[in-house]
């Protein structure tokens, strides 16, 4: 019962304005509470009655902290019993026979450890700590006393066995046993008997950013998400047996037995790398000669098809650029790719500027490699498949051979480390395209979406596939020879996904998220990898399926997914204070809900409720360990996109979507080559890697050396009879200083050149 103000209370409680009587009985979560008794039990504090007979009051903030302290004491007592049982089972100690004495040196932090000492000072504990009262004058222990053996026992005055002293080595062994036991047991920072798992609240200034969660969405979008999640959960059921459906959720963390899988893979390049391996050697493994020859063949074939169509229409005139077409070959195609690499290093507003010679910004080397007209011809006619052989046209038929090739190369040349990530990437495209995606959380927002599996630490793209929308095949009247656009003439709005903010459409992807995950990660199962995913993919059933196949996973989770405990599904933002946590466990999974600026729900196969720290702006922030690991490891795909954004090969204007996608994949292939090369030379930068690669390709296939040479000079070199001589007392203007518009006079000149020069600096500079 809340009362009016008491004079017998602290200023903190009085300032709250709402408080409860200190000696009255209250009920909280089915238990009786008397705050005066709680203070006595936990802190040994007796509250005196005031002069006016008032008992005093306590505010809600102090009540919360008092409950947390009581819970902590219970946890310590529970852990104490576990230690006792464990040590007795191992026969390390015998009660009332052998005890450990800790030296009486005063602890500088003794004032802050009162509650901890009370918790460990029970009579039933086998290793009592000797207090300062027992030995008021501590003395330094001699070497003899530190080596006392077990056989030396003495009786005290009351007949009880005296305290046994052990040496430092034995004491270290005891501590090691305690630490091993602490590792075997779950974290004891929460009371397992409490109805709710709550940690002490963290102040707002210590709270930091949480993993990306869904923003507040409309009820209509919530209904759409629920339907989509139910469909995904049904799809997962088809992949597992019925025994996986049994989830026995509890708040008792002792039943959680999840441990991280042992990684058995060998991360790094899948081929032999030496110090003599060149950058261009790795490029040839990624882009082999057969692939380049196939592009040349299909490009020449497509050019012939174009010319034939124009001739049939009487439009093949000398005024068009295609009239000057000649078949391309391997050397020219690789030179074309080298130009694309250089364009990403030196971005200009207009593509024609790379081949111009007017004024500033001139790029003289591009025209030495290839003329502008020839470059535009190859760019417009580059092709990857024979249109006449396409019998079953699909949305990706023009680029399918390229995606299959790069998927095979990416996964065969490199083995990822233990942590891998699945996420989406978006290639910006604002043209007409039936399966364009709209994801407002991405930088591009609208474009071609790819599902990607990357290495967490480096961002290496290991496997991917392009999302082509709902329809598997094109319409019957779709043309395969029109490369201006692969869609029909009617305008097509981008298809939206569940990452959209309010205002999205009803269109949903047809493939279940579980199928996406299995298609990407299936070759890496049973190797001990750890898969990090966001709430677009995660579900309890999928996590259990992956765990049974030797693959850990963790990440954010939507609480409306199937098999999530009902006690967590109803949790709202107002149920928890800043920094509080709720958790549920089953044998192999844990779900943690943490309140930061928003509710953050996480699922893991090996994380329990551990609180970690991170220093930011010279102060510590506190978060669950699974959140810290997620923030550190989830950015694999974004890390790759960040590297590629600095080398924008695909940002040039292009009317055909699959040619832009080819540039994106080629750009990613170069980035993967960079990751492979970094395993032997970690000092080279990404930019220098691309410059060296382009130069080596042009030296091999165009016999062009892009190394800058010094301009020729007409000045005489410092040889033969070029000696300084005095001109007398008359000073003349220095020729070198005059060129720099500096007024300087000198009495020295060159005898051979007959030019006045300052003897200190200008004489040598003139003759170099």
Automatic annotation (TrEMBL):
Domain called ZAD: residue spans: 8-86
Residue spans of biased composition, Basic and acidic residues class: 154-168
Native source species: Spodoptera litura (Asian cotton leafworm)
One CC-aspect GO term: nucleus
Keywords attached to this entry: Metal-binding, Zinc, Zinc-finger
InterPro entries associated with the record: PGBD (IPR029526), Znf_AD (IPR012934)
UniProt GO MF annotations: zinc ion binding
Annotated spans, Disordered: 102-168, 477-508
Pfam families according to UniProt: DDE_Tnp_1_7 (PF13843), zf-AD (PF07776)
Residues making up the signal peptide according to the UniProt record: none
Sequence positions that bind Zn(2+): 10, 13, 59, 62
Name of the protein in question: PiggyBac transposable element-derived protein 4-like isoform X1
């Amino acid at each position: 019962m809340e009362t009016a103000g008491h004079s017998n209370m602290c200023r903190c409680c009085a300032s709250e304005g709402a408080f409860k009587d200190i000696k009255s009985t209250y009920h909280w979560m089915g238990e009786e509470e008397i705050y005066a008794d709680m203070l006595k039990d936990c802190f040994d504090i007796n509250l005196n009655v005031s002069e006016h007979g008032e008992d005093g009051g306590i505010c809600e903030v102090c009540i919360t902290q008092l409950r947390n302290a009581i819970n902590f004491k219970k946890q310590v007592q529970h852990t104490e019993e576990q230690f006792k049982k464990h040590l007795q089972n191992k026969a390390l100690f015998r009660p009332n026979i052998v005890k450990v004495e800790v030296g009486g040196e005063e602890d500088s932090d003794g004032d802050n450890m009162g509650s901890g000492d009370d918790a460990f000072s029970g009579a039933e504990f086998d290793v009592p700590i000797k207090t300062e009262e027992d030995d008021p004058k501590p003395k330094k222990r001699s070497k003899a006393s530190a080596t006392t053996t077990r056989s030396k026992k003495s009786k005290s005055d009351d007949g009880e066995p005296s305290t046994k002293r052990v040496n430092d080595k034995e004491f270290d062994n005891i501590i090691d046993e305690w630490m091993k036991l602490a590792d075997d047991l779950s974290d004891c920072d929460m009371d397992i008997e409490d109805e709710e798992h709550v940690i002490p609240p963290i102040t707002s200034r210590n709270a930091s950013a949480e993993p990306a969660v869904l923003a507040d969405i409309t009820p209509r979008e919530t209904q759409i998400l629920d339907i989509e999640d139910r469909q995904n959960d049904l799809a997962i059921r088809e992949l597992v047996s019925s025994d996986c459906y049994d989830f026995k959720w509890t708040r008792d963390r002792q039943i959680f037995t999840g441990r991280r899988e042992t990684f058995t893979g060998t991360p790094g390049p899948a081929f032999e790398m030496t110090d003599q391996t060149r950058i261009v050697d790795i490029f040839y493994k990624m882009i082999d000669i057969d692939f380049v020859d196939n592009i040349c063949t299909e490009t020449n074939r497509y050019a012939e098809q174009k010319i034939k169509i124009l001739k049939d229409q009487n439009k093949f005139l000398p005024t068009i650029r295609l009239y000057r077409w000649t078949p391309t070959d391997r050397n020219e195609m690789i030179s074309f790719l080298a130009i694309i690499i250089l364009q990403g290093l030196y971005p200009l507003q207009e593509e024609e500027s790379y081949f111009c010679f007017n004024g500033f910004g001139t790029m003289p080397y591009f025209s030495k490699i290839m003329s502008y007209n020839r470059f535009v011809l190859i760019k417009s006619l580059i092709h990857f498949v024979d249109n006449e052989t396409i019998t079953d046209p699909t949305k990706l038929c023009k680029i399918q051979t390229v995606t299959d090739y790069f998927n095979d190369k990416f996964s065969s040349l490199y083995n990822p480390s233990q942590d891998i990530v699945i996420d989406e990437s978006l290639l910006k495209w604002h043209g007409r395209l039936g399966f364009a995606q709209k994801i407002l959380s991405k930088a591009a927002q609208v474009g071609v979406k790819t599902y990607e599996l990357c290495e967490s630490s480096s961002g290496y793209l290991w496997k991917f596939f392009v999302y082509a929308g709902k329809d598997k095949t094109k319409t019957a009247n779709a043309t395969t020879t029109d490369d201006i656009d692969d869609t029909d003439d009617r305008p097509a709005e981008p298809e939206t996904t569940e990452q959209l903010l309010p205002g999205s459409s009803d269109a949903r992807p047809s493939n279940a998220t579980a199928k996406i995950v299995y298609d990407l990660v299936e070759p890496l199962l049973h190797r001990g990898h750890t898969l990090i995913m966001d709430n677009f993919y995660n579900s309890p059933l999928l996590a259990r399926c992956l765990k049974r196949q030797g693959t850990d996973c963790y990440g954010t989770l939507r609480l409306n997914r199937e098999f999530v405990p009902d006690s967590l599904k109803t949790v709202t933002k107002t149920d928890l204070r800043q920094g509080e946590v709720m958790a549920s466990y089953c044998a192999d999974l844990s779900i943690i809900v943490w309140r930061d600026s928003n509710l953050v729900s996480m699922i893991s196969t090996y994380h329990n409720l551990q609180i970690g720290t991170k220093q930011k702006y010279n102060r510590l922030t506190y978060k669950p360990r699974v959140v810290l690991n997620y923030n550190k490891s989830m950015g694999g795909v974004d890390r790759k996109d960040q590297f590629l954004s600095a080398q924008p090969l695909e940002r040039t204007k292009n009317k055909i979507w699959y040619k832009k996608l080819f540039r994106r994949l080629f750009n990613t292939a170069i980035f993967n080559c960079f990751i492979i090369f970094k395993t032997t030379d970690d000092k080279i930068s990404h930019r220098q890697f691309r410059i060296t690669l382009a130069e080596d390709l042009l030296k091999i296939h165009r016999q062009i050396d892009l190394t800058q040479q010094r301009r020729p000079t007409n000045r005489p070199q410092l040889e033969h009879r070029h000696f300084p001589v005095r001109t007398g007392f008359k000073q003349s203007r220095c020729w070198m200083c005059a060129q720099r518009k500096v007024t300087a006079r000198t009495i020295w000149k060159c005898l051979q050149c007959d030019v006045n020069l300052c003897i200190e600096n200008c004489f040598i500079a003139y003759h170099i």
